[in-house]
Amino acid sequence: MITDPDQIFRSGFVAVMGRPNVGKSTLINSLIGQKIAAVSPKPQTTRQQQLGILTLDQAQIVFIDTPGLHNPRHKLGQFMNDEAAQALEETDLILFLVDLTETNPHNEDRILVKLLEELDESPKVILALNKIDRVEAGELDQRAARYQALLPEAIPIRISAIRADQLDGLLDALISNLPEGPPYYPIDQITNLYEREIAADLIRAACLIHLRDEIPHAIAVRMDEYTERGDHGAYIRTTLFVERDSQKGIVLGQGGKMVKRIGTHARGQIEAMSGRKVYLQLRVKVRKNWRNNEQSLKQFGFKRWE
Asked: pLDDT tier at 83 (50, 70, 90 boundaries)?
């Protein structure tokens, strides 16, 4: 909370970039201190930009959580890459997140570096070397050097997003490199998404956790109803869309057991996020090849198709 009107105040937008599953959403949740971004052990949990807004005494940092850059196989994948690339053009600072459990940089790390090199004016880059809690101490320097070689001018900081190691140092680096200026958002606002949009992401994250292989990536979540019922909490009715009849059977599971498991997990996450009881109803439908259909992408809220 801002307390001293004479204190130099800094504010700006920080694009959190990296390949899928390096921990971008986990890091933003840790920094904000509340779960606003859906996470799962599988890549491509994030499909669209989301803001995480952190207001401190001396600064307001607006984190842009972007989809992980990858080689797209359909229009949805291209949309996700476009979302990530657009964030580079609209930011004051870039937080490049990499995964130190990987011995060497991936091709997708290099895709992001190439995007940075193509910018007319590249913002300053902070290189967050993530997952230090999962790497032997003797390996850290070597691995960090390989990633630093991708961006020699970047400011390196070793962190663990999930364990919150060295996040104070990361915040200090971010704040000191932001421009002076007033906050962009009210001091009590923590994201740009509505609660129902966050709930939809949490439902899809539950699908990613409980389903195997490619199936969860073929799922779209449509909110059909999200209403308050006073002391009884919220009523949520949702449709999960898949691309093939065989996928529908897997999502439902024998006797509906799988969709019930997904619903139970998602309901717990939504209740933790919203702070109230939730009644969640899920149904499953087939929308063939929706990831390559512009009309479907528009209906499911991917904004470039609006």
From this structure: low
